[in-house]
Amino acid sequence: MALKRRNKVNAAFSMSSMTDIVFLLLIFFMVTSTLIAPNALKLLLPQSNNQTAAKPLTTISITADLKYFVNVDGKPDRVAFHEIEPALQRAIGDNTEAFVSLHADQSVPIEQVVKVMNIAKRNKYKMILATAPEGR
């Protein structure tokens, strides 16, 4: 009596599910890597060891050629110096706990930085001076 086995084990492996996972991971990393760039302006910030954990509501950037940018709704808008205060008032409103981050190139004269800090003091905004980590 010869008995034949009807169920044979198939040793083939389907790669289609593996390629689906790889493509999903690729799309995920492409999307998240574009969300990481917080500031489109290239500034050479002064270096410091101290860092703060406060999350700023808006940022003010001063470039090396003394151009001012106020970050409203995630994009930096170029403004004249006299337009900084109204732009901040629109962006912050009546929020008394809001932080403003000041990004100034290291070649900007301290006088320009102090002028922007005076605007924040006049309006009772809390200001953070952005710096780069030391050793970079």
Largest beta sheet: strand ordering = 4-3-2-5-6
The overall average pLDDT, rounded, is: 79
CATH fold name of the domain at 47-133: Nucleotidyltransferase, domain 5
Would you tell me the structural class of the helices and strands? alpha/beta
Describe the SSE topology.
Layout: H1 16-35, E1 47-48, E2 58-62, E3 68-72, E4 75-79, H2 84-92, E5 99-104, H3 110-122, E6 126-129, E7 132-133
Parallel strand pairs: 1-7, 2-5, 5-6
Antiparallel strand pairs: 2-3, 3-4
Short description, anyone?
The chain is an alpha/beta fold. The chain contains three helices and seven strands, in the order H-E-E-E-E-H-E-H-E-E. The strands form two sheets. The protein has a five-stranded mixed beta sheet with strand order 4-3-2-5-6, with helices on one face. It has a two-stranded parallel ribbon with strand order 1-7.
